[in-house]
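## retry 2 of 3
previous attempt timed out at serialization; input unchanged, resubmitting
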Amino acid sequence: MEHLIIGICGGTGSGKTTLAEKIYNALKDDALLISMDCYYKNNSHMPFEERIKTNYDHPNAFDSDLLVSHLLDLKCDKAIDYPTYDFTTHLRKDEWIHAEPKKVIIVEGIMLFAIPEIVNLLDIKIFVDTDADVRILRRILRDVKERGRSLDSVVEQYVSTVKPMHESYIEPFKRYSDVIVPEGGYNKNAFDMIVSTIVDKIKS
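## retry succeeded, writing output
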């Protein structure tokens, strides 16, 4: 079976996960969706006080070797077991998820395009481009409601690491993209075009 790997990158709160999920749902049984967030390094050797100070918006925060290995396995029609991650404790969970290869493999994450070994495996590269003020508001809502963070900690993290890392490792690499989508999953015209292109490729 031939496999098409779709990479969706963009800043925090850009709407890349929404776009990825919509594409996945549109393709139904032909697609597998993997989040780069699952591949944060397991820092169980660190005390919690040290883990919360770690820069999670840098390429080195991810176990990119494992993600590359899994993408290669899927491309070679091999099943994988990928990790899961707990954002409240900043630790990898004990649970691993079994995934069978599909015609379309969708992988989304903030640092996808900053890691050359991953970029080289992507057949279609999509960058989700959303205004910074929209992204920070979405991040605040997500981190406070879903990840148990305080408002002060979210703002401090955004200023100290998220914003500078975005400017260093995300924004410059959108030049690698094949498609730039303003507003991510909320852009219906772009979504329809992307799905149509993918369907044509897997049918050809």
